[in-house]
Amino acid sequence: MKKKANEDHADPLGGTLEELLEQTGEREEVYAEALKRVLAWQIEQARRQQDLSKSDVATRMGTSRSQLERILDPTNAAVSLQALDKAARAVGKRLSIEIVDA
User: Fold this and answer.
1) How far is 98 from 67, CA to CA, in rounded Å?
2) Structural domain boundaries of the chain?
3) Does residue 14 sit in helix, strand or coil?
4) Per-residue pLDDT tens over the stretch 34-93
5) Sign (positive/negative) of CA torsion 34, 29, 88, 97?
6) CB 50 within 8 A of CB 93
7) Which of 61, 65, 95, 101 has minimal CB crowding within 10 Å?
8) Is-contact 81 35, C-beta < 8 A?
9) Exposure class string for 92-102: b at 16+ Cβ within 10 A, else e
């Protein structure tokens, strides 16, 4: 019986990053922060492409610049979808969320 190529050599590190995060109980937190970083980066890129100041975006959202800073803080994963949607719409974008297989 032939072994698969992956079975011929043991992983010298003992597993994948995902397995490590699962074992340490940090997977959900890391995924949430990574997702938030991507969304904040996309909103920031759209803002820059349109040559909008953060104050302009905050005004369009009907909020303060400090509130916008909190919404776009990539380490703050506890931001509502409604707030992210308002920020996206303020830069001419739309928030799109989907559920996919794990």
Assistant:
1) 26
2) 14-90
3) coil
4) 889 999 999 999 999 999 999 999 999 999 999 999 999 988 888 999 999 999 999 999
5) positive
6) no
7) 101
8) no
9) ebebeeeeeee
Q: How confident is the model at residue 97 (pLDDT cuts 50, 70, 90)?
A: confident
Tell me the one-letter amino acid at 97.
I
What would the two tokens of residue 58 be?
């905050």
Q: Are 77 and 36 in contact (CB under 8 A)?
A: yes
d(CA 32, CA 91): 23
| Of 14 and 57, the one with more pLDDT | 57
Decide if 54 contacts 65 (C-beta within 8 A): yes
Give the class (CATH, top level) of 14-90. mainly alpha
d(CA 101, CA 31): 15
Please give the Cα distance from 86 to 54 (Å, whole number): 13
**Is the separation of the CB atoms in 59 and 18 below 8 Å?**
no
Statement: the pTM of the whole predicted model exceeds 0.70: yes
Read off the tokens for 74. 């990539």
